[in-house]
UniProtKB/TrEMBL annotation:
<feature type="signal peptide">
    <location>
        <begin position="1"/>
        <end position="25"/>
    </location>
</feature>
<protein>
    <submittedName>
        <fullName>ABC transporter substrate-binding protein</fullName>
    </submittedName>
</protein>
<keyword id="KW-0732">Signal</keyword>
<dbReference type="InterPro" id="IPR006059">
    <property type="entry name" value="SBP"/>
</dbReference>
<dbReference type="Pfam" id="PF13416">
    <property type="entry name" value="SBP_bac_8"/>
</dbReference>
Length: 394
């Protein structure tokens, strides 16, 4: 099934070089994305692989004996897994720069920084048997492909949804205006995602409600457009009770009633409902930002055969089903939908739903070369967004 492409433009080598210098700094090795060589074959495993990933992506049974997809991988490949979780994309980029990790699961607000800094290698997807089965709309995207080179295996994906307490918020919201222009109706009980990338949520709202600003891509903002988004977020700040980066803590706030409205992931709603909270989620009429994670191979890795084996294994139907269901996201491999414990999992997470996917603007790193195709202005890069987010939070 082919899903309509979002209006992203490929990032040029010039943009990548600019990103390396302005958005994230140069890598310790001084390498660039263009200098990396693509692997041509997978040899014998080196016996180990170190993985840097979001919590819940690498489960070995130590957190729950019934949740373990690491052991089968180790048994099949003889590659012993060591795992380091990270809490934010910024933390992930910092850790990956140390050169200590063979594999990373990177969201779109981290992947381009890693590519630009020379921290990850191009990936020869022809060596990955399960790549062919991945949803087409996750392949060859601006956040995982540069100058025609793929940089990893697409993983799970999902939308940043609007969640609300059904017993506290009436009528049910249908627009992001509930957390922006109308946030005062629930002042002190609104929440928002704690990251510079959340600026894109404000830009998406302005794209629909203030078209005179000329925003056509929420990750491609010139200085004036960034200022408008920041001003909207500063106004919202007066009504935000807390910002969240840990979805479990966010759920606790919704369950206690200290938060009644704000952005979330579908897994947050599932946890809240399981705990008895009266919550629902909605994909607002403006659409939403979202994430599509990519498994990438560290350029300094000494265990690249095991790294490739992990990339292929984690996209297999069995492993992808286990991860997607445990973490709470849509799998990248549609064959995984036949193997989830909950037969309605893929329906819940809109796997393969073209009309749903068309409404999501997946996280990607802002760079000076405008992603919307403009050439008459410079757009603001991630370093400018980081500075702006500090101003928003005060």
């Amino acid at each position: 099934m082919e899903i309509k492409k979002r209006p992203y433009w490929a990032i040029s080598a010039v943009a990548v070089a600019a990103l390396a210098l302005t958005a994230c700094g140069t890598s310790g090795s001084g390498s660039t994305a263009a200098a990396a060589e693509t692997k041509t074959e997978i040899g014998a495993g080196e016996g180990k692989v170190s993985i840097l990933a979001w919590p819940g992506y690498v489960e070995d049974g130590s957190n729950d004996p019934n949740v373990d997809w690491v052991a089968p991988f180790e048994e099949q490949t003889k590659c012993e897994v060591s795992f380091k979780p990270f809490g934010t994309s910024d933390e992930a980029v910092t850790l990956m720069r140390t050169g200590q990790y063979d594999v990373i699961s990177a969201s779109g607000d981290a992947s381009l920084r890693l590519i630009a800094g020379g921290e990850v290698d191009p990936v020869n997807t022809a060596l990955l048997e399960n790549y062919a089965d991945v949803y087409p709309f996750l392949k060859d995207k601006a956040w995982n492909t540069v100058e025609g080179k793929n940089y990893g295996m697409p993983h799970g994906w999902g939308a940043n949804l609007l969640m609300y307490r059904t017993d506290k918020v009436d009528p049910a919201p249908t627009s992001w205006d509930a957390v922006f222009d109308d946030a005062g109706k629930h002042t002190g009980k609104v929440t928002a995602y704690d990251s510079p990338i959340y600026i894109a949520d404000a830009a998406l709202y302005l794209m629909k409600h203030q078209p005179e600003l000329g925003i056509t891509n929420p990750y491609s903002l010139d200085a004036d457009q960034l200022t408008a988004a920041v001003n909207l977020l500063k106004a919202q700040r007066e009504h935000v009770g807390e910002y969240w980066s840990d979805v479990v803590k966010e759920v606790q706030s919704f369950s206690s009633g200290s938060t009644v409205l704000g952005t979330t992931w579908q897994v947050g709603a599932n946890i809240a409902k399981a705990e008895g909270a009266s919550v629902e989620t909605v994909l607002p009429e403006e659409g939403a930002t979202g994430w599509s994670d990519t498994w990438m191979v560290g350029s300094k890795s000494k265990n690249k055969n095991c790294a490739y084996m992990w990339l292929d294994y984690i996209a297999s139907p069995e492993a992808n089903a286990a991860v997607a269901e445990h973490f709470g996201e849509s799998p990248a491999n549609p064959k995984a939908c036949q193997l989830t414990t909950d037969p309605k999992h893929c329906e819940t997470y809109h796997s393969g739903d073209a009309s749903y996917a068309e409404q999501i603007w997946y996280w990607t790193t802002p760079v000076e070369k405008c992603l919307d195709g403009r050439t008459d202005v410079k757009c603001t890069d991630y370093s400018a967004w980081t500075k702006a987010w500090t101003e928003v939070k005060g």
